[in-house]
Amino acid sequence: MNQISSAGSEDLVIEVQSTGQKITLTRSESIIDALARSGIEIPTSCQSGLCGTCKTRYISGEVEHGDCILSDTEHQEYLTPCISHIKSGTLLLDL
């Protein structure tokens, strides 16, 4: 799914490991909002990367982390979908 958008950038895609569902994400949309739009609810509290309520494991993909609570080691396996974003391509979530 390497289509070019009208803005000339690569599509950003969230893939749900358990179902194979693929959700296109815009640069202005949060991962948590894109998941909710597709019927996948993840509990949140602060929506600003400060509490860790939405901490989610990911399998692969390039993440732009926006949180203030996860360590560098945790960033290799987890993200906070309320504030983090996909750098490019597809993000495979352990959901």
Question: Care to describe what's here?
Answer:
The protein is mostly beta strands. It has one domain: Beta-grasp domain (Ubiquitin-like (UB roll)). 12% of the residues lie in helices and 31% in strands. The chain has two helices and five strands; from the N terminus they run ββαβαββ. It has helices spanning 31-37, 72-75, and strands at 12-16, 22-25, 56-64, 78-79, 85-93. A five-stranded mixed beta sheet has the order 2-1-5-3-4, covered by helices on one side. A hairpin with a 5-residue loop joins strand 1 and strand 2. The longest helix is centred in the middle third of the chain and has 7 residues, at 31-37. It is globular. The two termini are 20 Å apart.
Please specify the SSE layout and strand pairing.
Layout: E1 12-16, E2 22-25, H1 31-37, E3 56-64, H2 72-75, E4 78-79, E5 85-93
Parallel strand pairs: 1-5
Antiparallel strand pairs: 1-2, 3-4, 3-5
Task: Tell me the count of domains.
Answer: 1
What about the largest sheet?
A: 5 strands, mixed
Q: How large is the count of helical segments?
A: 2
- State mean pLDDT (0 to 100 scale): 90
Show unreliable segments.
1-8
Structural class: mainly beta
Number of strands: 5
Categorize the overall geometry: globular
Helix content: 10-25%
Q: How big a fraction of the residues is strand? A: 25-35%
Terminal-residue CA separation: 20 Å
